[in-house]
Amino acid sequence: MIYSIFADAMNTFKYTISVLLFALGIQFVNSQNISVDEGYTPQDLVEDVLINSTCANVFNVSVSGGNFATGEKSFGYFDGTGTTFPFQNGIILSTGKINNAPGPNSYLSDDGGNMGWDGDPDLNDALGLSNTYNATILEFDFIPLGNKISFDYIFSSEQYLTNPSSNQCNFTDGFAFLLKKNGDTRYENLAVIPGTTTPVKVNTVRGPGTICPVANAAYFDAFNDVNHPTNFNGQTKVLTAQSDVIPGETYHIKLVIADEGNYRYDSAIFLGGGSFNFTIDIGDDRLIATGNPLCQGENLVVDATQTGATGYQWFQNNIAIPGATNATYNITSAGDYLVEINYGATCQTTGSIKIEYAAVLTIDEDSFTTCDADDNQDGKTVFNLDSIKNNLFTNLPTNYVVSFFEIPTSTTALPSNYTNTTAFSQTIYARVMNVQGCYTDYPVDLRINTFSAILTDENLGLCEDNFLILDAGDGFSSYSWNTNPIQTSQQITVSSGGTYIVTVTNATNCSKTKTFNITASGIATIEDIIINDFRENNSATIEISSSSLGDYEFSLDGTNYQDSNIFTNLSPGEYTVYVQDKKGCGIVFETFYILDYPKYFTPNGDGYNDTWYIKNLDKRNLENSTISIFDRYGKLLKQYSADNNSWDGTFNQNILPSTDYWFTIELTNGKNIKGHFALKR
Questions:
Q1: 8 A C-beta contact, residue 157 and residue 234
Q2: Residue 602 to residues 247, 388, 428, 660, 680: CA-CA distances in angstroms?
Q3: For 285, phi and psi rounded to 5 degrees?
Q4: How far apart are CA 348 and CA 341, in angstroms?
Q5: Tens-place pLDDT, residues 7-16
Q6: How far apart are CA 58 and CA 251, in angstroms?
Q7: How is residue 7 annotated by DSSP?
Q8: Whole-angstrom Cα distance, residue 73 to residue 136?
Q9: In the 8-state DSSP scheme, what is residue 389?
Q10: Assign residue 617 a region: left if phi > 0, alpha if psi is -120 to 50, beta otherwise?
Q11: How far apart (Å, rounded) are the C-alpha atoms in residues 3 and 159?
Q12: Are 599 and 554 a contacting pair, CB within 8 Å?
């Protein structure tokens, strides 16, 4: 990876910041930053700094790093006393000069170019690389007293960039803590993300805040500003490398860090002073979180027997247990237990185990009754099992997982919203899922009551100046109306429209609602009857006053009603229209007349249809209208007032022949009617 131009720019930026801070009078005293010491021998670094125990059986210690012309080293001791750095002291292994590691973070450290400083093949193999450079290696053999080793470390790097470009998101140096037993051919890498086999690197442990993807952010500490105890752009939190080992066997460990791709952007490993521990594994913790706590009344015998041990002392919660000096101890209560194992006067290892006990669960309620909630009152309904779980025990710990099953042997948990399969009554079983072996299944009774009565909503009309009695029906335990104030009687009296809802409850405490939709109504007021006559399709439209409240229907015979207020295809004559309120508030009626002219007349002296005239003009106050009759050539034959007058088919006492004649009617309302009719003899 070639990014030297960017590195130079970053170096210039950090230098500029450093000069600026100096110009502003901001100084960083030594107590704010770590210090380093190159004077420790490799044996001192391992025995006196990293392990710092008289129990250590360490040999074949070696270290290698950069061969700088100035004589500076890429490994040594660091002191963080009085700083915010998590370790008070320890070992530093770097891909550059450790003299560049102390803060402030004011310039870019990228030493080791063009000096033939190689990488490491074991590191390449462990990380799947082929291009490491500038490797610093600390390795030694040891014989463990206990069956577990562990040590703490922090990975710091200049490659934790706060404002990277997208192509820099994969920049990362590599390191590994390689362990193998004497005689084995392959190493195991202990520098991995906890619980995985993923190596810790810049691109596998990174927090949010840049364009680069977040990775295992829980293990990332921070991107550093200038004021930091080290001269690195970022670092992980304190991590722990650990492994099981066999007491008395010889092991080789190789701690190695190197640049990847080229020498630019140094990185470092900080190993916590005194954190390399030999401990005894005396058993897995017994925790509720891992599903294996001790059950109430259960004891656990823990055995810490070690070959060559000269004495034991057991502690509970950091307090020595009187008389507990045997290799075994019988645990009868919860706590953090530790055993000190002595090998002579000055050598000691420890083992620890954490014990929790499953809680004694007290049943609060194990029978749950509800009402069938759907229209099909078949004794089956939906139960909220989450709610039941919260009410089942008086003291259920928040981290206990409870599931429900239809039968004790079932392994398929019921859903949170469960519909019972046995009508009216069913027993299901509650099971504590994450604390195995301490509890039997708890039977839970589900009971379902029903409401079999059928309630039908009603739509009613309320006539003006009247009242209604609403009746919810008898035979129920209680009633509750949505009135203000609430009424609790079977019947209520209402005098205004609205929606009235009553909730009725039966003897099994199940409820239903009935709704009365009350519409204010009243008898109609006929405001006008609009008549369209003297045409092929005579019609009448009945107009109701806008102040009328009701919903109305219309009839011309008082028997057959229609919703429409328009009547069509009406013959000439007298009509009575009836308007009825659908809610029963009453009927009004009014007479109207349809006018039309006869299409023919027969003036033959038989006393029937002997004259041509317009009936009922007077009923419409049109009796003063003027009627004019013409022959086919437009000759005026007769003109007369419509009031009780007619034409007998003569002109100047002469009988006119059978043919068509034309007319005009000038109605007194301003309307003119024209047409023709036939004279038949």
A1: yes
A2: 140, 96, 98, 12, 5
A3: -60, 145
A4: 5
A5: 444 444 454 4
A6: 10
A7: H
A8: 10
A9: H
A10: alpha
A11: 11
A12: no
CA distance 681 to 667: 29
Cβ-in-10-Å burial (0-12, 13-18, 19+) of 119 comes to buried
Distance CA 503, CA 82 (A): 74
Query: What is the four-CA torsion angle of 138, 141, 147, 153, rounded to 10 degrees?
Result: -10
269 vs 236: CA distance, rounded Å: 10
542: DSSP letter: E
The tokens for 360 are: 């004694």
261 near 113, Cβ under 8 Å?
Answer: no
Paired sense of beta strands 347-355 and 277-280, if any: parallel
User: Hey, what amino acid is at 126?
Assistant: A
CA distance 525 to 581: 11
Tell me the per-residue pLDDT of 375-423, one tens digit each, with 9 for 90 and over: 889 999 999 999 999 999 999 998 899 999 999 999 999 999 999 999 9
pLDDT tier, 316 (very low <50, low <70, confident <90, very high otherwise): very high
Distance from C-alpha of 371 to C-alpha of 366, rounded to nearest angstrom: 17
255, 139 in Cβ contact below 8 A?
yes
pLDDT tens digit string along 339-387? 999 988 878 889 999 999 999 999 999 999 999 998 889 999 999 999 9
Please tell me the distance from the alpha carbon of residue 302 to that of residue 350, in angstroms, as a whole number: 13
3-state secondary structure of 14: helix
Q: And the tokens for 157? A: 């790097």
Alpha-carbon separation of residue 438 from 293, 295, 400, 513 (angstroms): 8, 5, 12, 47
Cis peptide upstream of residue 485 (ω within 30 degrees of 0): yes
Q: Label the pairing between strands 188-189 and 89-94.
A: unpaired
Cis peptide upstream of residue 104 (ω within 30 degrees of 0): yes
Going by the DSSP 8-state scheme, the letter that residue 556 receives in this structure is S
Total count of residues recorded for the chain: 681
Q: Which two tokens stand for residue 440?
A: 């039997």
Pick from 208, 229, 222, 194: nearest CA to 80: 229
Going by their DSSP bridges, the two strands 600-601 and 573-581 should be labelled as unpaired
Which tokens go with 544? 């109701």
Question: Could you read off the pLDDT of 602-647 as tens digits, one per residue?
Answer: 999 899 999 999 999 988 989 899 999 999 999 999 999 888 789 9
For residue 138, give the nearest of 67, 43, 53 by alpha carbon. 43
Beta carbons of 138 and 45 less than 8 angstroms apart: yes
Number of CB atoms found within 10 A of residue 507's CB:
10
CA–CA separation, 233 vs 45, rounded Å? 26
- Rounded CA-CA distance 129/173 in Å is 11
Query: pLDDT tens for residues 452-471?
Result: 999 999 999 899 889 999 99
Residue closest to 355 by CA, chosen among 394, 327, 314: 314
- Which pair of tokens denotes residue 654? 């002469």
d(CA 247, CA 351): 13
d(CA 570, CA 538): 5
Which SS3 state, helix, strand or coil, does residue 363 take? Answer: strand
- Beta strand residue intervals within 67-127, DSSP E: 75-79, 89-94
Query: What is this structure's pTM?
Result: 0.58
